[in-house]
Amino acid sequence: MSTENGALQHPNEPHTNGVAQRLNWLRAGVLGANDGIVSVAAIVVGVAGVTTASAPILTAGTAGLIGGAISMALGEYVSVSSQSDSERALIAKERQELEEQPEEELAELAGLYQAKGLAPETAKQVAIELTRHDALAAHLSAELNIDQSDVVSPWRAALASALSFTIGAILPLVAILLPPESWRVPVTFVAVLVALAITGTLGAQIGGSSRLRATIRVVIGGAVALIATYSIGLLLGTTGVV
Length: 242
Fold this sequence. Notes:
By secondary structure, the protein is mainly α. The chain has helices spanning 19-48, 54-100, 102-115, 120-144, 154-177, 184-207, 211-238, and strands at 2-4, 7-9.
C-alpha cells in the first residue's frame, strides 16, 4: 500500500484523477487503429481483386488513409466538443449556484451523501468538511461525476483519433505493396488478421473483458470485410465492368 494525502492506497488500483479518461483515450486509440486497419485493408484488397498493379492500389489506399483519418478526426472533434461544452456549462452553473445559494447547496450535498448510506449527522459533517476544502469540486464529484481539471480536449481527441487511424492504415498498405504481385493478397490477409488479433486482445485487456471472445469477434469481422471487398473487386474485374 502507499499513502497520498494521508489515505491508504493499493498500488494496483487507480486512484489518481484522470485515470478513467486516460483509459478511454487508450481504448479509443486501439479502436481507431483497428478501424484504420480494416478500412484501408478492405479498400486495397478490393482494388487488388481487379488488379495487383502498384499504382492503383497505392492511389486507392492513400486516398482511403487520408480520407479516413480526416473523417475520424472530424467526428471525434465534433463529439468531444459537444461533451466539453456541456461539461463546462455544468461547471459554470454549479459555481454560480454555490455563490448565490451556499446554504442550499450545502444541504443538497449532505442529502447526496445521506442517500449513499451515511447517517444524517455524518453526511452533514462530511459535506461541511468537503465544502471547506473545495466546495465546487465536492459538488461536481457528488452531483455530476465531473472533475473540473479533467475536462476533455476536442483537439487532443481529434489528433489522437487521426493518428491511431493512420498508424493502423499504414499496415495494410505496406503489406500489399511490398510482396511480389502474386503474393500481395494472401500476405495482406495474414498481416491484417494478425494485426486485428493484437488490437482485439489489447482492447479486451483495457476493457477487462474476455480476450479470446473479443479477438475472435474482431478477426472474424475483419476477415468478412476482406473477403467481401476482394470478391466484389474480383467480380467487377472478371466481368469487365472496370
